[in-house]
Write a structure and sequence with these properties.
The complex is a heterodimer of chains A (806) and B (163). With 806 residues, chain A is an alpha+beta fold. Chain A has 19 helices and 35 strands. In chain A, a hairpin with a 4-residue loop joins strand 13 and strand 14. In chain A, helix 10 runs parallel beside helix 18, helix 15 crosses helix 16 and helix 17 crosses helix 18. The mean pLDDT of chain A is 96. Chain B has 163 residues and is an alpha+beta fold.
Chain lengths: 806, 163
């Protein structure tokens, strides 16, 4: 007989489904040092590979002499471009439609560029051998300033592109030009701005920085010459795409390549790209017949693998006297470094920068982005954000502040009167996006009330008066930020990576005794997928999350997916999980109907079982159904209980939020103190509030770092000035602020469970909140704009330039 | 390069091996002794992912020569839960979501373990100061601090109950 004892509340609680702060299943391994990261992987006979790197930012390579290195016992081989050329692998295609040197082919274009690949028995011999490789260089003039890239007499960087007047994204106007990408109506925008009551203009630089995950990039390549199979373990945010690329580059059939992403020690965009280290390791394994491991050190990681940002954004924003925004014009000079290796969907060379109208109802707008080459590392990934969305959010949130100054208006009020209204959703923006849902006014009012906004403004005014009377040397800044993200790329019709549509996938197999395994095309890097995807499924199929194993990252077992970045796992793979779960449920309903001898339509779903309508004592639990699916011959129904879903999202999702930072600034030292940081996020349906809060803390801390000191800085001859953690700012527990988190919940109307994604919102919203706090502190003294990062020195400079040091 | 004879105790077990004097403790642990809990994040002693306990002090094993560890008593994250059962700190990190990608976690917990020996009743400020040598890129530290404080309370309550 069926046991009806547990109440629906008890049954529901047992599932640990949506909305539960379920403890993470990953943590049992991780807290005991039993994670399995790339450098933990060891194989019999494994060799170590590492690079000889260029000390120069721009130089001709005259000669490479490997003799002394080869003479060192334990050195197996030293690969140079000459060795890769016969294989056609001395250059490789980039994700952005450009090509990139795998090893220096005649010249080097940035400091830290890969010149030769040394393969040795161990790391120490390898390090010794690298010192013994003799490379002769002839220095060339260096181009570091993106704004000078298109000067007529600028140094020619990419001689390989000589005479090419068009690239992957249209016409090239200059030897250092990559593309011009335009969205919107420039003529109409110019006209509105020319005739506007008020126009504010500013150049906003979002400096170059780096995702710098705590674990660097690496791989282990193992070519089994007996069975012709290549196994590639690596720190890949998109393992399936890596498999396809590896197949296309190497000519090895895709079924003979197995790519595995083991545990990943943070990605933040840095592990999306394909790097020379992967290519060289594969070649080295093929050549030597032994497994080859390559793992970057921290300097390699900061100097050579994918950077983020580096956008010079020139803006004009127009408004009526009452503050209603009428138009927005934005031109970006995008510094892509030596090769265009940005990780963006193919048709979006500047990512989703065209979300730069932000959360505001702006009738007409234009965006133009000129990508240029410089002697810096390639990359241009989305560091904890969807493609270029941090740049867009920072730009518009600075422009709003600059406009508020021009209008002599409160910046909170200026935002309020320009927000897209709740009833305008779905909203079509001037730059072509359809915002799926939102309720900005409610979120904004909640945030302002929570921080006591009016009181803060009063306190600030009193502080300014006290400062002027000489009673204090500290100023108070209130940093406002309201952001709209665009995540979950994306519809296959307009989003692809190297031609692969950006769908994602989930495959579920229910075992006879009612537990399950689900595999997805994504890969967790700390987001807790093993915990949260099981929660989505638990709510869909009525099996406790504790009884569902989640697997990702092994291309031999997981269904094809586009990976984890741009907050796409929940919007896309999460949706695939829900849809696959619904297929399971549909089949389960047929089985239950057979077992209960009723028609399918006579059954209704109740948490973990199908119940005969109007007859609650007649039911079959999912566990009973699972067993029946394996042990009964049910007419017209195949045995087993499995489902797979490939989900192509109909639209992106648009998470939003309101962040406010209250900051004290000492004008004499430039030292700041974050007194309060309030973060309200609306990520739609909330799957695991504990994990959401953790994501917000982490993303806000990365935002804090970027806004307040983290940068990839170069000197005028292209030396990287921030290539170790001594110089590259990663905040410690000591200086990191404490965050207050809050939420509203506006489900996505097109996502199966209404979820929108959250991991990146805090970085998108956080940077303008911190930066605006610095600007706001100095607004009463005439500051309009000052570039990030706002480290102590730069804040001190602001105070000095405003004459506040007396 | 000539090798030296190294003797040390790791997680209560006596180990004896030949190493180059220049070899780093983290490499000896990870490559030779297969103790892969401590990780390498920077190799310049800034990030603390390689933190182990050596003779009762937290050290960053990426900047300790193996030779310096001769005769030492070393405890790594593996030594804190030798029987596969999470200890109070490990449980607290799980309970309070004090980790995400898990890469910094072994060093973080090993450091917290020593911190609570040095100061069994730390304030939040003392935890933030005492843990500042260990970087985390995922959590923003708020839940790490919460985890360490919760573990301290639990350990102190257990001690009081035992007295």
């Amino acid at each position: 007989m069926n046991d009806q004892t547990p109440t629906s509340v008890e049954r529901s609680a047992k599932l640990k489904g949506l909305g539960v702060s379920r403890k993470r299943v990953e943590d049992v391994r991780f807290t005991q040092g039993k994670g399995n990261y790339i450098d933990d992987i060891k194989m019999d006979g494994m060799l170590f590979g590492d690079f000889v790197r260029s000390p120069y930012a721009h130089a001709r390579v005259k000669s490479i002499n490997i003799e002394k290195a080869m003479a060192l016992p334990g050195v197996i081989a030293v690969l140079t471009a000459k060795d890769l050329e016969p294989l056609g692998l001395h250059w490789m295609p980039t994700l952005a439609g450009d090509k990139q040197m795998v090893l220096a082919d005649g010249k080097v274009l940035f400091q830290g560029q890969e010149v030769a690949f040394v393969i040795a028995e161990d790391r120490y011999i390898n390090a010794d051998a690298i010192e013994l490789v003799e490379v002769e260089y002839d220095e060339l003039p260096v181009l570091i300033d993106a704004n000078a890239a298109m000067a007529p007499d600028a140094p020619v960087l990419r001689e390989d592109l000589a005479g090419q007047t068009s690239g992957a994204h249209g016409a090239r106007k200059h030897h250092n030009h990559i593309f011009l990408w335009e969205v919107g109506d420039e003529a109409a925008t110019d006209e509105v701005i020319a005739n506007a009551d008020v126009v504010a203009e500013e150049t906003v630089y979002y400096h170059r920085t780096h995702p710098c995950p705590l674990e660097t990039c690496g791989c282990v390549a193992s070519m089994d010459k007996v069975n012709g199979k290549l196994t590639l373990y690596g720190t890949f945010q998109a393992p399936h795409v890596v498999r396809t690329v590896a197949s296309l580059l190497s000519g090895i059939e895709e079924h003979n390549i197995r790519v595995v992403s083991p545990d990943i020690g943070g990605g933040f965009g840095n592990k999306v790209g394909v790097y020379p280290g992967y290519v060289c390791s594969i070649v080295a394994s093929i050549v030597t017949g032994r497994p080859v491991k390559w793992v970057e050190d921290r300097m390699d990681n900061l100097m050579a693998t994918a950077f983020a940002r580096d956008y010079w954004m020139k803006g004009k924003i127009s408004a009526t006297k009452a503050g209603k925004i009428t138009g927005l014009h934005c031109h970006v000079t995008a510094d892509h470094g030596a090769f265009d290796a940005c990780a963006d969907p193919t048709k979006f060379p500047a990512g989703f920068m065209s979300i730069c109208t932000g959360s505001y109802d702006i009738p007409v707008a234009y965006l133009g982005v000129d990508g240029v080459y410089t002697n810096k590392a390639p990359g241009g990934v989305s560091y904890r954000c969807s493609f270029r969305v941090t740049e867009a959010a920072y730009f518009i949130e600075r422009m709003i502040e600059v406009l508020a100054i021009k209008l002599n208006m409160d910046a909170a009020e200026l935002r309020r009167i320009n927000f897209i209204k709740k009833e305008q959703f779905p909203y079509n923006s001037a730059l072509g996006w359809e915002y799926d849902s939102g309720d900005y006014h409610t979120a904004w009012d909640k945030a302002l009330k929570a921080v006591g906004y009016d009181g803060l403004r009063k306190e600030q005014a009193e502080r300014v008066a006290a400062f002027k009377r000489g009673e204090t040397r500290k100023l108070l800044g209130v940093g406002l930020s309201f952001f709209t993200e665009i995540v979950g790329a994306g519809p296959v019709k307009n989003c692809d990576i190297l031609g692969m549509g950006m769908f994602d996938s989930c495959e579920i197999r229910i075992h006879p005794t009612g537990s399950a395994i689900a595999r997805l095309g994504t890969i967790s890097q700390g987001q807790g997928h093993a915990t949260t995807f099981a929660q989505i499924l638990a709510s869909e199929i009525g099996i406790s999350a504790d009884s569902i194993t989640i697997e990702e990252g092994d291309t031999d077992t997981a269904p094809y997916g586009l990976g984890t970045y741009g907050s796409r796992s929940t919007p896309v793979a999460g949706a695939a999980a829900a849809m696959a779960g619904r297929k399971i449920r549909a089949k389960a309903q047929m089985i239950a109907a057979y077992l209960l001898e009723v028609h399918d339509g006579d059954l209704e779903w109740d948490i973990d079982r199908f119940v005969v309508k109007g007859s609650p004592e007649q039911f079959k639990t999912m566990t009973e159904i699972a067993y029946a699916s394996y042990n009964q011959a049910i007419p017209g129904v195949e045995p087993g209980l499995e489902a797979v879903s490939y989900y192509d999202p109909p639209n992106m999702t648009y998470p939003f939020g309101a962040y406010i930072c209250v900051m004290e600034i000492d004008v004499d030292t430039g030292v700041h103190e974050v007194r309060h940081f309030y973060a309200l996020d609306d990520c739609g349906t909330r799957i695991n509030p504990m994990i959401i809060e953790g994501q917000v803390h982490g993303g806000a801390t990365e935002a804090y770092a970027i806004a307040m000191g983290q940068e990839m800085a170069y000197d005028e001859i292209g030396n990287v000035k921030t290539s170790t953690l001594m110089d590259f700012f990663l905040p410690t527990s000591w200086e990191t602020p404490t965050y207050t988190t809050d939420f509203t919940e506006t489900p996505s109307p097109h996502h199966p469970i209404g979820a929108k994604g959250v991991g990146e919102s805090p970085n998108v919203g956080g940077v303008p909140a911190f930066s605006n706090a610095v600007h706001d502190a100095f607004r009463p003294f005439g500051l309009k704009h000052s570039h990030m990062p706002h480290d102590q020195w730069r804040i001190w400079r602001i105070a000095k330039d405003l004459g506040l040091h007396g | 390069m000539s090798k030296m004879h190294l003797k040390l105790t790791v997680n209560g077990k006596a180990e004896e091996l030949m190493v180059e004097p220049r070899e780093l403790l983290i490499h000896v642990l990870r490559e030779k002794l297969n103790i892969t809990g401590p990780h390498i994040g920077c190799e310049t002693s800034h990030c603390g992912a390689c933190t182990v306990d050596m003779n009762g002090k937290s050290v960053k094993s990426c900047t300790v020569f193996a030779a310096q560890a001769n005769g030492a008593d070393v405890t790594t994250i593996e030594g804190l839960s030798p029987h596969g059962e999470m200890n109070v700190l490990q449980n607290a990190f799980r309970e309070h979501h004090g980790l995400q990608c898990g890469f910094c976690t072994p060093g973080m917990i090993t450091r917290a373990h020593r911190l609570l020996q040095e100061n069994p009743t730390p304030t939040e400020e003392e935890v933030r100061f005492g843990m500042a040598g260990n970087l985390c890129r995922c959590t923003g530290y708020q839940n790490i601090v919460k985890s360490v404080l919760a573990a301290a309370s639990e350990l102190n309550a257990a001690k009081e109950a035992a007295e």
